[in-house]
């Protein structure tokens, strides 16, 4: 298996390391920076630094585009133009609507691993960066089922949890759980640094360090993310300000009961969010009889993704007739039952293996 | 040395463990909950569960009051009423104005270690909870110099960094770097849990988990903190909302240059905040000739604390005449020079050892 990494920074380099160490893949790389390519080879993230994009992706089985969000659609299109017909192309951008709107190719599936580190650059790449991380995928009705299956399996095998989602939903979620925390971190360090003028810098406790860890992330990368998701982020800020104002008014009024109820609610919300990421149990197999038509795999994946059901693994078994079979492995008996119900609601027949 | 811990939870228990393991102190405890006392003995945080407050503090050298903020002033007063004349009394509350306003005793010094954990209760107490943590102390002009010196040394020996600060300044700092992050964590989990209705809980990335780690902290403890520091917290929220609105308007206007400048500023602010906590270098000794009058030690400690200068260790050498000597150990040549200048500005004579 040949994997091409287009853009060898922290994320691209970690994909290369994981594909080499976990799958024994032949990993090659391309990057506009010769220095980054050299560092990637030195790090062992790629075994070959390619002189051109076509050298990297022409005969690759997978191409991962890890470029800044503001140039993503252009680079993905260039990769698709020179990739062979066997090549599944994906990206790792933090915003998905722009690339999804610009690229419509059955072999392209947008992606976004929820992983990162304080330190950028391929010299900090790690094979385990994606272990147990959610990896969003944005298949569309136009997506080739076998391309989705192959990418899904690859991501599972490097240790992450693929979850299908619509690009619009993805961007709203990210505005709230990633981009807004970055904005807040920036605002909080600015406030703390100036709270007592320039003379005294306050000692900072653990909660402050947690909240501000991502302050002042790389301006090129994050400028692009903020711009690409500005509308969703503005809406998230407006909602946050309204919620802050509510808490502020309770504090100003000395409303102890209201504060306690609000705080208890936050505890419950946090527990629900954590539990959603911690579903466990045995893996169950569902076999779904599907018509041989485009988009059916994306439709199933998105239906389960909407209910936060992770597909541990999947397999496509096309037949020569009008129908084929999709096997889905789902963790936990209750979740598997829920998945079965959702698939039936799509009008499909399910067999429990 | 006998140390009494009044209130044996996570913080009180960790003080007990640290005093036993690092100083070989005889540590006793009192708590309104018999179950908590039992657990504290089982954990090894105290060696003796006292039946009454006077049993615990009557002949103690130090009493640490670790009670919720809303009952703090009352408990500290009770402890001072039954503690012997040799006993230095302090507390660990997260808000300092209320207790400083209610208690005026030369042997009481307010305190607040910037340490904590996600998990409350003495069963999670650790001897190293305070290692390298800032430990705020709020001496007043009324504070007995030798009481401050003894407490300062004790806290240094359990591994923390004592820093003197006025109660008002402490509460403004905490509103910004601790209480506001807690409010934000609450608001963010509520937003994320509801961003897509009840049907889909979004997967959350590392930045979101960092920001929301403290969401829904114990309502009894935090209700008291919010109430005691409501005015400073309301001001911090108002400032935050103004800063958020500024960022929001730049995003909505697509002001890429403004966003980049703002983001770079946050990076610089974060670096300054981190560097302030990482001063290094050799320890230098300053000897200060001081008049034998009350409040002089607090005055020196506060003057250095205002400039974020940590006193690594201190020693008091009273003489029978009108003057004595205070020895200060300061880390780093430049910082020691700055400290010398500040002490001279108080009208005091300094000798470099």
TrEMBL record, chains A, B:
Its EC number is 1.3.1.12. Residues 285-353 form the ACT domain. Residues 1-281 form the Prephenate/arogenate dehydrogenase domain. It comes from the Bacteria. This is Prephenate dehydrogenase. The lineage of its organism: Bacteria, Bacillati, Actinomycetota, Thermoleophilia, Solirubrobacterales. It catalyses: prephenate + NAD(+) = 3-(4-hydroxyphenyl)pyruvate + CO2 + NADH. InterPro entries: 6-PGluconate_DH-like_C_sf (IPR008927), ACT-like_dom_sf (IPR045865), ACT_dom (IPR002912), NAD(P)-bd_dom_sf (IPR036291), PDH_C (IPR046825), PDH_N (IPR046826), Preph/Arog_dehydrog (IPR050812), Prephen_DH (IPR003099). Pathway: Amino-acid biosynthesis; L-tyrosine biosynthesis; (4-hydroxyphenyl)pyruvate from prephenate (NAD(+) route): step 1/1. Belongs to the prephenate/arogenate dehydrogenase family. Keywords: Amino-acid biosynthesis, Aromatic amino acid biosynthesis, NAD, Oxidoreductase, Tyrosine biosynthesis.
